[in-house]
Design a protein that fits this description.
59% of the residues lie in helices and 0% in strands. With 111 residues, it is mainly α. The chain has one domain.
Length: 111
Amino acid sequence: MACKYLLGEDQKRLIDAAAKAVHFANKRVAHRNRKAQVATKFSDLDKAIDVVKDVTNKYLLLIYNKPHDIHQEMLRLKLPERWDQVFLETWATPETLAMRLGERLPPHNKS
């Protein structure tokens, strides 16, 4: 019974953390409604990613009885060779890099 409760709590934590990201995806991405008002910030997305990472680490430890570096696992198992080449091209200006992106709203397409 305790395991079922703990699983439920982790599930709730994941759902709560992802709620704003899901809202953004539903309104702006899935329905291509560029005028939909969403209040999702990059910091909300970061928090959701952190919760997924924490829960994943927890269950990897429970299943395999040893810690895993999920970033290295992902690199080893999922990403093709030279996946990171896209990051080698400069796109951001010094002004963009100086902004506090964690508190900015996602960009809106004006077209």
